[in-house]
Amino acid sequence: MNSSGSKSNMENLSPFNDFNASAEERFNILADKMSGMSSDVGNSAEFCLLPKDMQKLDDLFLKLKIKKEKFMGYQVNHAFDYSELYRFLGFSINNVGDPFMESNYGVNTKEFERDVLDFFADLMHIRKEDFWGYVTNGGTAGNMFSLYLAREIYPDGIVYFSKDTHYSIPKSVRVCNMEYRIVDSQPNGEIDYSDLEKKLQENRNRPSIIVANIGTTMTGAVDKVSKIHQILEANSLKKFHIHCDAAMGGMLLPFLEDAPQFDFRMPISSMAISGHKMIGAPVPCGIVLTKKELVQRIERPIEYIGAVDNTLSGSRNGLSPLFLWYAVKKLGNKGFKALAKRSVRNATYALSKFQEIGWDAWINPNANVVVLKRPSEELVKKWQLAVYGEIAHIYAMGHVSEKMIDEFTADLQKTI
Ligand SMILES: Cc1ncc(COP(=O)(O)O)c(C=O)c1O
Fold first, then answer.
1. Tens digits of per-residue pLDDT, 26-70?
2. Ligand 1 center–CA 166 separation, angstroms
3. What is the domain partition of the chain in residue ranges?
4. Is the N or C terminus of the chain more exposed, i.e. has fewer CB atoms within 10 Å?
5. Helices 319-356, 402-414: crossing angle, 10 deg rounding
6. What is the number of the ligand 1 atom nearest to the C-alpha of 286?
7. What is the pLDDT of residue 172?
C-alpha cells in the first residue's frame, strides 16, 4: 500500500513501490516505463547502445559501488535511499526563475522547493515573511550568489575571508571582480580575529563584506559570528554584509548542544548550505538564504520565462528540491539531530582509534572531521582522502561506520 493508501494510486505506481524489489530491479522497471515515453527517434532500433557500451555502464556501476565502500575523505553522505522518487526521473523538471513565483514552465517542483526553504528558514531563525532563498546546485553556487548580492548592495565593498576559506570564495570574488583581503587563520583553522580587525581598520571608509566559515573544509573550525560582529561594533563599522559559508556546519551545528550561533538572529545577510553533505543526495545540491529586502536589488522580470530572474543559473535542477523535501519530511529535526550526533560520535571514535595506535590526530569542538598526519599515498587513494600538505582528514559522514573506521585504522597501523 502506498503512503496515501489509495488502491487506484497503488495500482498506477506499484512497479515503483514494490519494496521487495531491489533498487536495481526497480531501476529496470523504471527504464521499461520510460522507454514508452521516448520519441520515435529514441525508440528506433538504429539508436541503441552497443553491447560494449552497455558493458561500460555495468563496469561504471560496479566501480561506483566499490568506491563508495571506502569513502572517508569528503563531506558527502552516501547513506540515503530515494528509491520512492525514481519515477520522477521520467520528467525534465526545471525550476527556472524565482522559486516563489510560478513560471510558464509548468514541469517544476517549486511548491516542494518552497517547503524545503521554509524548513531552512525555521532552522536558521528567519521569519517566512522576511526571507528569500533557493535550492542551488551546491555550496559553491550559494557562496557565489551571496557575494554577487553583496557586491550589488555594496559595489565599493571589500571582501574579507581567512586563509582557511574554501576555494569557492576566492573564485567567487574573481568572478564578481571584487576587491578582497585574506585574513590570517589560527592554528585550528579559525579566523584570526585580531588580523581581521587590523585589516578592517585599514579600510574603515569602505563597506565590509565578511565571510564566516561555519566549518572550514579542512579542519571544521567555526569562525564566530558574535566575535566578528563585536569587532564591527567596536570600530563603528556600520556598512557590512556578513555571509556565512555553512556548507557543512549548516546541517550540523544547529543540531548539537552548545554549538556557536550563526543564524539570522545575528546580523548576518546571507548563508549557503550544501544539501549533499550532511543530508546526502545523489546529485550535488544546496540552499542559499538571504533577506527578501536584499534580493529585491537584483531582480529582473523576464517575459520569456514568465517569472522574475534572481537566481544565478537560469534553468534550475528541479530534482534536488524533491530529494531535499523527501529527506526533510522523512527525517525532520529529530532525524537530523540523530544524524549530527552520530556523525560527531563517530569522529570522536575515529580520533580515539588513531590515538590508540599512536597516529597524530586531533579534532575541533563540535566537528565531525578528524585531522590526521598525512598517510601514505596508497592509503590516500584507497580511502579517497582529502590532503593538504602534511595533513589529511576523514569526515565521519552518515555512511561512515565504526567498522569502516576500524578497517582504516588497521590499514594505518600496517604502515607504522
Ligand atoms: C566550507 C565549504 N564551503 C563551500 C564548499 C563547496 O561546496 P560544494 O562542493 O557543495 O560546491 C565546501 C565543500 O567542500 C566547503 O567545505
1. 566 655 555 455 566 656 667 889 999 999 999 999 999 999 999
2. 6
3. 1-48, 110-328, 334-414
4. C
5. 50
6. 10
7. 98
